[in-house]
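Q: Predict the assembly, please.
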Amino acid sequence: GAVVSQHPSRVICKSGTSVKIECRSLDFQATTMFWYRQFPKKSLMLMATSNEGSKATYEQGVEKDKFLINHASLTLSTLTVTSAHPEDSSFYICSATGLRRTTDTQYFGPGTRLTVL
Amino acid sequence: QKEVEQDPGPLSVPEGAIVSLNCTYSNSAFQYFMWYRQYSRKGPELLMYTYSSGNKEDGRFTAQVDKSSKYISLFIRDSQPSDSATYLCAMREAGGTSYGKLTFGQGTILTVHP
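A: Predicted assembly structure:
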């Protein structure tokens, strides 16, 4: 299957600081990337959809000024959690999809665990 | 009512058992159906991908889709302890403005004990 990486895998930060998470598709060009949030023992909650070169589309209830998404190239998308607070602590997962893949579905990264103190 | 319903379990079976996991859905526009496996603290891994109704087999895994009943299943034969994970069903429409967006079930926690 396709390989999607995320960095960092785990981050601990102080309240009020900003954290950037990178998502890379390693073996295909990702025309669309998705960012999810997952709470313990819960399913994935879609936060936003980003297409390369255009602004991200945020799901209802997700603050676009707090969760900044940039999809500058076909292999890289970033999620920046600005002025993080303890309630932002969660498992953040990205996924990528590309039209050239045989299976046109989403391939997920390994996730980033964010802890805000 | 949620768009996709999946029994969260937990489901515990002995090694070698046949496991049946199911999801029901309400959106008749869903055309693509997937099953993902997620180990603890990891991202979901694609297991099965099917289009429209029918069966698909891959090794010990069989996916079934019955669009008339809005019901999908994943069967695991000869289950192994390494199959212990959370299984998520997911589905999406064929196109339109929501192209690519997946709707997930809640996930079923499966434990296969030796």
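The CA atoms of residues 41 and 91 of chain A lie 11 Å apart. The mean pLDDT of chain A is 90.
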